[in-house]
Amino acid sequence: MTRTSHRIRIHDSLRSRLIRGEIAPQMRLVDHAIAAEMGVSRMPVREALMQLVSEGYLESTSRGFALPNLTPDRIAEVFVLRRLLEPHAVAGVARDRTEADLAAMQAALAEAEGAGPDVTGFHRGAEAFRNIWVQAVRNGELRQSIQRYSGQVQSVRFATLTDPLARAATLSGLQALFKAFRAGDGLAAQDRMLRFIYDAEESYRRGLATGLIA
Amino acid sequence: MTRTSHRIRIHDSLRSRLIRGEIAPQMRLVDHAIAAEMGVSRMPVREALMQLVSEGYLESTSRGFALPNLTPDRIAEVFVLRRLLEPHAVAGVARDRTEADLAAMQAALAEAEGAGPDVTGFHRGAEAFRNIWVQAVRNGELRQSIQRYSGQVQSVRFATLTDPLARAATLSGLQALFKAFRAGDGLAAQDRMLRFIYDAEESYRRGLATGLIA
DNA sequence: GGTGCGTTAAAAGTATACTATTTGAATCCG
DNA sequence: CGGATTCAAATAGTATACTTTTAACGCACC
Fold this sequence. Notes:
With 214 residues, the first copy, chain A, is mainly alpha-helical. Helix content of chain A is 73%, strand content 3%.
């Protein structure tokens, strides 16, 4: 028996691919193609895709589903949202985090630190670190709101990481955040996260100005 | 030709019924019944219902769709989110609002003020007021995040409005907010909204304590 | 009278087929 | 050669039929 429905399995599968950045911006996700690939009918695929739309991961075009158009304006909007939500969120995490959370964070941080010139390795570590603390947010409504735009966050980070300055800022930000988590210091975590987001936005803007980002 | 799809029409129709409080908590919304009533097939109805689920208006049970189980914990979580997002949002609205926005707000406020003992009239005015300023939020990502839990906000307000104290607090809060909007004073709007949310939560807690709310 | 099991009906979930819409391209005309 | 018009292919949207799951009811047995 299927423990979960096709729709949910497909939704989760697509979402993880989206979060991992495996879907290129110009790619078009079409229900019948995915259905054929997975051996099911269009319906559960279509429903999964539409759910991803209402969760902000995808956009419905007249010619298939695609990544939302990440214009600089929209990215700026997300940075505003991040400043409003994430500092408060990590303050709670600093209080509630378990030892297992800390261990996982340390592993993710180690991967980012040891990545060398490898961009994808660094990105994977940073993404894992983020996923861990987001998962640890107790307030489910808050967590869901943060997760809704997490795909965009990953995309933007991926776009900026070729810049050594941005990468250094990200790494030191993660390290400072981890320290606050380990110390259980909510205020410090809140402060570090706010700075971290400001730095990220500055990196993004610099990337735009220097033409590193399309 | 149909300008909009059945799915969207049904979604909007159901949402307005939900917002008006026409769906009782123990009621079950079943796709094939609604489909028969509206003369369409199950599919667009099913998709509309599922979209309402991911927007927080409904919950999917194994025996039809129903109002979400608004546990006090979940409601508390939404209040946290509201405190994080809405003060900042209304500050922007106070700067950007048009004359048309102000006129619509005033009309909504007048409806709430003149509602007398009528609960639904007051609720409709308060809801209209909220919808107007939410629509006026420039930051689309922020607006969407706020809209995602607006259904829950309406439900909670509807549950508390039988309490005269809660109703008075709501009305004076709306009036103060409107003043700030009219003056274009972002800081004042931010402050009024924060107080408004605190008052709303206090009303809700009092309703819980006195058994007014299930 | 309570508890456990089996039956059954209702509703979710899925598959398939058909229709409508949209876009890109090809063709035709100026 | 350029632009408009029409046509075809791809995809969204809807309808209908079938399958699976689940909970509610009844029955028997304790």
